[in-house]
Design brief:
The chain has about 325 residues and is an alpha/beta fold. It is built from 12 helices and 12 strands. It comes from Facklamia hominis CCUG 36813.
Length: about 325
């Protein structure tokens, strides 16, 4: 209905077919024919050609009013498009469990914000189970987690492979018999040695020493139980908690041994009050990934976030 509106607007501005044709660099007959086709399509005249200069009809006034609104919408959208393409507009909601929301995501978000200050960033902290629901429902755009999710439903970029470790209070007597297996915080944090080259400890060496395990809805807790089962070891679990950092702090207090991911040590939680041991078995390694929903449109802002963190080394 508004196709060819530029011809109508030009004639209205110049109040003359000949002047409008000259300004548009087309012949007057061609311009007149275009206007006539528009009028025939609409079923009403836009201009009163009986006057000099010609006048816009009552119907034409309303048509031109709508044309100008369309031009404004197009101009506004063109401006939005330029901002969108230049990453000067957009928003991302990122989800992470309490550990990653506290340790890793703030640094990533700060780096992104420094590059794209106009993009709005939000952070949602919850359990892995809830975060998957939020990602599925579109309440978050991206999710950082160490739990493997359905590849049929989600896409992922792996950022790191994390080794699970035992954190044992230094004054536990068992440590004196396991000197060849020990890892210091400095060795892990600074990468002085390849963790994989250090022999993995046998869980049975810890006998009836007290353990703190994460509850079975947590990936670390699930993996800890799988590792014990694989080695036919019945851990003496005296504490059950929901958060990895809580378990780690219980170990720091000297009360129990915990299973932890090495990311904790790389992000400032290393302590000489603990001695660390590498665990063995398939469940002792896990990927840390950023996930998004497979069938959902990924915004340009989200794509830029993925590109940025894809260049990052977590540890």
């Amino acid at each position: 209905m508004f196709q060819g509106k530029e011809y109508v607007l030009a004639v209205e501005k110049e109040r003359s077919f000949s002047k409008a044709a000259e300004k548009m660099h087309i012949s007057q007959p061609s311009l007149s024919a275009n206007i006539k086709r528009i009028e025939e399509r609409l079923g009403h005249d836009l201009f009163d050609r009986s006057t000099i200069p010609l006048r816009v009809t009552e119907f034409g006034e309303e048509y031109l009013k709508q044309c100008r609104q369309i031009l404004k919408i197009e101009a506004d959208f063109d401006q939005f498009l330029q901002r969108y393409e230049g990453l000067q507009y957009g928003h991302i909601m990122i989800g992470g469990s309490s550990l990653y929301a506290a340790m890793i995501l703030p640094r990533m978000m700060a780096q992104y914000k420094a590059l794209y200050p106009a993009i709005e960033l939000g952070l949602k902290e919850a359990t892995s189970e809830d975060l998957v629901h939020y990602l599925r429902e579109g309440e978050i755009d991206l999710l950082l987690d160490n739990t493997g999710f359905d590849e049929q439903e989600f896409e992922a970029v792996e950022l790191a492979s994390e080794q699970l470790l035992l954190a044992v209070p230094r004054d536990f007597a068992v440590n004196q018999f396991l000197l060849d297996y020990q890892l210091s915080p400095r060795e892990i944090r600074q990468g002085d040695i390849d963790i994989n080259q250090v022999p993995a400890v046998d869980l049975k060496a810890f006998g009836q020493a007290p353990f703190v395990f994460l509850n079975d809805h947590n990936d670390t807790g699930v993996r800890a139980r799988r590792l014990c089962q694989a080695q036919d070891y019945q851990a003496n679990v005296v504490y059950g908690v929901d958060q990895q950092l809580t378990a780690y702090n219980i170990s720091l207090s000297g009360m129990a041994i915990s299973v932890m991911g090495e990311a904790l040590l790389h992000y400032g939680y290393a302590s000489d009050r603990l001695i660390y041991y590498r665990l063995q078995g398939e469940a002792s390694k896990r990927p840390i990934c950023i996930y998004w929903k497979k069938d959902r449109y990924l915004t340009k802002a989200s794509q830029a976030f993925l590109e940025l963190i894809g260049q990052e080394k977590l540890f």
